[in-house]
Amino acid sequence: MSNFSFLKTNWPDLAASAAEAEQQVNSAPRTSCFHARRTLELGVKWLYANDNYLKKPYADNLAALIHEPSFRDNLEPCLFPKILTIQKIGNLAVHSDKPINSNDALHVLKELFHFLYWLGRSYSPSTLAKQTFDISQIPQKDSTVSDKNAEQLGRLQADLVDKDARLAAKEVELAKTQEEIASLQAQIQQYKQRNRAVPDDHDYSEAETRDYFIDLLLKEAGWDISQPDVQEYPVTGMPNDKGEGFVDYVLWGDDGLPLAVVEAKRTKKDARIGQQQAKLYADCLEQMKGQRPLIFFSSGYDTWLWDDQQYPPRKVQGFYKKDELQLLINRRSSLKDLASATINKAIVERYYQLEAIRRVGEDFQKRKLRKALLVMATGTGKTRTVIALIELLQKCNWIKRVLFLADRNALLSQAGNAFKEHLPHSSPVDITKIKDDTTSRIVLSTYPTMMNCIDEAKGGNKRFSPGHFDLIVIDEAHRSIYQKYRAIFEYFDSLLLGLTATPRSEVDRNTYQLFELEKGVPTYYYELAQAVTDGYLVPPRAHSVPLKFQREGVAYNELSEEEQLEYEEKFWDEEQGGMPEKIDSAALNNWLFNIDTVDKVLEHLMRYGLKVESGDRLGKTIIFAKNHNHALFIQERFDANYPHLKGSFCRVIDNYESYAQTLIDDFSVKSGDPIIAISVDMLDTGID
């Protein structure tokens, strides 16, 4: 018998995997937690394959799948902490040697039971009977079974990933038609709607989840909650009959002074019910110890941080590490006035750059805002502006560590070079290339890399806690980042600065929402028209290429007699015995791969393109291709028409090229090859 027998009919693979975790709870708890996490992953991937309400995220790993907004919206609210608990303890099992005991394994198994019950209840073809977790069905400890260590589990995980890949490849060969898949998904939706119409009276043990999850978050931040004076710490001065109370958790500094109090409120409604009680505990500790601690209050489902000397309460995703809390305490006396501090004019000196920095500083300091958005036209120095702002904030002790996010490695390389030039002592680290450095004051990362880092742990502690960074900079903030990578901005508790060259009227509504700004009203903007008026930029000049068919389509009766003959040859349908009167421009997209068309465009470019060096040579030019194959086709035609340029004059620069950055570097040299870059989503935004 097993607590997961109810899955056998419709989900035999889940039932078998969950039973594996169940068998090992007492004999091999670390291995049990590993199998529980694997079962969770199998269940989550089943949901994505069968529930078309869920939107596929940027990657198919567990972290990306569970943080996708549509996945969370689809859950019962109480389930997400359970899912995180299974994931986090499973990660500990594989990536650390911290002890995992049978109580941990039992708790994780119970959380897995609740998740799988919800899955079965929601998606079963027939009504699922009420299920109760029965601890007596868990086998007692078997002394002949030995637990696996982290290294062994790591190898097992790699083997299972390889096995899953082979199975997936086999399933692709036997894949159902799209019509069959759509039909099955429609059935799943019917089951889901029918089952959820019935009230769910299952006991999800929310109180047990809350207590365990708070302890888990504290341990992740490096706090040893078994130390004396951490839990149930007595205080005096409370406004009650006895004049005393017991703080759920006190987080102490190395100097013996309180850094933070944590009030774990026993409620599933709203953690803020504990705000006043936590504040009173902070009052008592301030009187007793001479230092006012920071204030956390948590229900296990929601956690709030209240630095009542600086900001109102705000929701956070976990607890700060000791050094991060100490830094917040120290800033109470070390912050310097941003308005009177000098901006480094060796980095920026134009009036609008200085004004942008002052405007952000004013919002951070006077208005106590924690988010800002700068809209600045391409070529007006966004990166230099933000580097000068970072230098000012660091000099005035407002920030220590900065995370610079971009969606392409080329932008990270460019930003890293700019930091090295203008802030030579900042030692920027690109963690897409250097994995282990978390001590740098400037960390550069793509969004997917940082999403993975959020879930990484070293020795059982989080690689990056929610309080690790003081400022996050989002380069090219217009790229629908919030919907895709919302988990990053929800996880880190930091100041937030967005940069974009998109005109403020065209910036996405979700972007303004992310920065808590009115649509069309960024923190500061300096757009193309003003930059042209000021003489910092020149306006674009359009040059029409005489290929009107590709723009407007072709109408037979508008052609010359010679063109009509060619039209008849190309579009006459032998079977139907006729031809279309008009071919619209969309249907002519295949002309992008037409040799004659491409040759004519290239000839036009080489003859009439912008010339440099007294008209002797074509200036640096970018061709924007439709896709990778189109880019290769253009390059092939160029080399065929201009073989004397030896293949270096015109090059494809896109994400298919492993060494794209070296090509960008070559293209940046004023007089060197390549002269023409053919780009697909590589040189369209952000590249200098």
Q: Can you lay out the helices and strands and say which pair or pack?
A:
Elements: H1 12-23, H2 29-50, H3 62-67, H4 69-74, H5 79-95, H6 102-123, H7 150-173, H8 178-196, H9 206-220, E1 231-236, E2 244-252, E3 258-264, H10 275-289, E4 294-298, E5 303-306, E6 314-316, H11 322-334, H12 351-365, E7 371-376, H13 382-395, E8 402-406, H14 409-422, E9 429-430, E10 442-446, H15 447-454, E11 457-458, E12 461-462, E13 471-474, H16 481-491, E14 495-500, H17 509-514, E15 524-526, H18 528-533, H19 548-552, E16 554-555, H20 561-571, E17 582-583, H21 595-608, E18 611-612, E19 617-618, E20 621-624, H22 628-641, E21 650-654, H23 660-668, E22 676-680
Parallel strand pairs: 3-4, 7-14, 7-15, 8-10, 8-13, 9-10, 13-14, 20-22, 21-22
Antiparallel strand pairs: 1-2, 2-3, 4-5, 5-6, 11-12, 16-17, 18-19
What does the model show?
There is one protein chain. The protein is of the alpha/beta class and 688 residues long. The protein is 43% helix and 13% strand. The strands form 6 sheets. Strands 9-10-8-13-14-7-15 form a 7-stranded parallel sheet. The chain has a 6-stranded mixed sheet with strand order 1-2-3-4-5-6, with helices on both faces. A 3-stranded parallel sheet has the order 20-22-21, with helices on both faces. A hairpin with a 2-residue loop joins strand 11 (457-458) and strand 12 (461-462). The longest helix has 24 residues, at 150-173. The relative contact order is 0.06. The model has no long low-confidence stretch (mean pLDDT 89).
Quick overview of this protein structure:
The chain has 688 residues and is of the alpha/beta class. The chain starts with 11 loop residues before the first helix and ends in an 8-residue tail after the last strand.
